[in-house]
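BUG: 3D viewer hangs when loading the predicted structure for this chain

Environment: internal workstation, default settings.
Expected: structure renders.
Actual: progress bar stalls at 90%.

Input used:
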Amino acid sequence: MRQLTSSVETWPVRGVFRISRGSQTEIVVVMVEIREGSIIGRGECRPYARYGETPESMMDAIEAIRQDLQEGLERDELSNYLAPGAARNAIDCALWDLAAKRAGQPVWKLAGLPPPQPLITAYTLSVDSPENLAATAESQKWRPLLKLKLAGQDDLQCVAAVRANAPVSRLIIDANEAWSQRDYEELSPELVRLGVEMLEQPFPAGSDACLASLPKLLPVCADESCHDSKSLDRLIGLYDVVNIKLDKTGGLTEALQMKALARQRGFEVMVGCMVGTSLAMAPAFFLAQGTRYVDLDGPLLLAKDRQPGLHFAGSQIFPPDGSLWGNC
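Structure tokens produced before the viewer hung:
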């Protein structure tokens, strides 16, 4: 019989990480371990208050299906027991890891994917003053892709400061639902002039229907408006790109299906993350293969990472070692 263990962990952030909804100096994650004999599968999730999740509620959701998991519940049945979200993600990823170790094969083979290749991730600059962003951009100007968080105040000055101090880096921006329609109309032409290549979630989820009639001067990406495959049809005609995150889809199983469906419906795909350790990024690494935008810099934003962790060389991420996740 299997054994299930779940725990709440706190990890310090490097400095302060700010978005439009607030700031944080540490993150709280939930880690799941499923043991079969001598084999242990692991998964990590980030309970996110924006979606009504807390560490306690995620632990309760995991506990509610303990007996089923210990009696052999597999990932292809998991969606019948848990809704999409962080708790299901941690369990789903633990079951993938367990299956790979049980079979003696890497996850990418079990999933029918090609051998994974190194990826270039975006590096996130959190909300700050134009003056501070200028200094941060100067220190990170060597990175190929920067992602700038905005908050609806001094946004144009912030983008201009980053562009002036990181003139060669590709630049994408994320408003995290902080803009009005007027912001969008006034700022979009300036963003194009400054070489921004993609805008993520300008409007609050549920208040984004106006995108159907607004001019698209640059691609717009859905994040908070996009959760799982069922989200996609509503987004057609509004967004050009969808940001797939495992903590939203409820794990790698649904995320792989969503990626295929998104492409069938004409969307470009971004694979993103909540701030988390390398254990949370490892499953998303396989999902991110061949996508247009990769934003898996969570461990780079932490003061320390889980060991062993992913290997980063600057902004390049290499496939995870089997001792971390996925039996690679």
